[in-house]
UniProtKB/TrEMBL annotation:
Keywords: Membrane, Transmembrane, Transmembrane helix. PANTHER family: INTEGRAL MEMBRANE PROTEIN-RELATED, PTH11-LIKE INTEGRAL MEMBRANE PROTEIN (AFU_ORTHOLOGUE AFUA_5G11245). Residues 45-281 form the Rhodopsin domain. This is Rhodopsin domain-containing protein. The keyword Transmembrane applies. GO terms for cellular component: membrane. The lineage of its organism: Eukaryota, Fungi, Dikarya, Ascomycota, Pezizomycotina. The chain crosses the membrane at residues 27-48, 62-86, 106-127, 139-162, 182-206, 218-239, 259-280. InterPro entries: Rhodopsin_dom_fungi, SAT4-like. The keyword Aminoacyl-tRNA synthetase does not apply.
Amino acid sequence: MVSSSSNGVSKLPTGIVPIIHRAEVYQFIWCASIFLVLTTIWTCLRIYSRRVRNVALALEDWLYYIALISFYGFIAALFMAVYLGGAGYHMTRLTPYHVARLTQSFLVLESLYGVTMCGVKWSMLFMLKRIFAVPRFEIVTWIIIGLQAAWLVMTVLIGFLICRPVSKNWDPTIPGTCGDRIAGYTAVSVVNVIIDCMMLILPLPMIYNLQTKTGYKLCLFCIFGIGIVTIVFSVVRLLSLNELDFDDFSYTAVPVMTWTAAEAGVAVLVASSALLRPVVDKVIQCVKSRSSRSSAPSNAYTNSQSKMNSKLRRGFVNVVDSDDSLELGMMGPRTEIQGGEGHSKGTLDAMTTAGPEFKERKGRMTIVVQKQVEQTFAEREDHI
């Protein structure tokens, strides 16, 4: 049942609030839902990569899982702000019940946001410390870990102590005071961006000094530089804070909610992306396998035969699986053939048995292929 206030504005019913038809609200719902699904998929791929490599869980893995659970709770608190707190409506439409649920949801999600971001960054920092085990690098890493811990404490304290008593957040009628909440949220975001930049720069000198090929260095720069995506979302979230108006907080907070969900979701994805090498290799292998199957068998057979005949003219042929032109569809998983004029020796391993004959101008050679059999054969050449 919808109630009305003395000024004629209808109040929302107590309980679950119907979604208001605003583009910003739908954008938030889609954004939060998409990142909820993506982070779950990325986590499954991370677990798969760990099992493929048979690597035991390290400290960075446990920190990541703590951050993931916190992220799920963070998204749940955001949805509570919409469905129970009336986020998206003007404050004049909210009852004291909705205002209390809205502000309480934000107090919870601020803390969960801090735990999520801190856990994700700690996970990445401990991974970097394990990879680049250099004393100076470890010292700088520990400094950033300490700064991140201080940022977490700062985030939680600002959320709970900006208004004294805490209940004044949702009940403005009680005696007490509130500080500048926009300034507090801005300070949290600025420090967060600074730490992100420090983390982005941290591994670059180590990669630059690696004694390896330039192409490999560029790949490493791209892998560890993917954190710049998190910085972009953090900056956009920081700019969105300028649109906050605490006199109409429920209406103006929706864009900030969207960018906060996106920032935390991207951070979780980035924390797993650097560990998905086995998944990428598997995808590339499948793509190559499909492309090779789609090629015409006759062309592959012709190319392999011409290459084999060319080698036979020189008196020796060595065919292995690494020969890209060889069609191995009917020859089993591994085949190695060696032959030549005079005496020949081969280690032969295949699924089938065959007896092709290769006739040359000066000699004749018989090759027998048999599964899991090592056979040494020698045949005196008969001149034709």
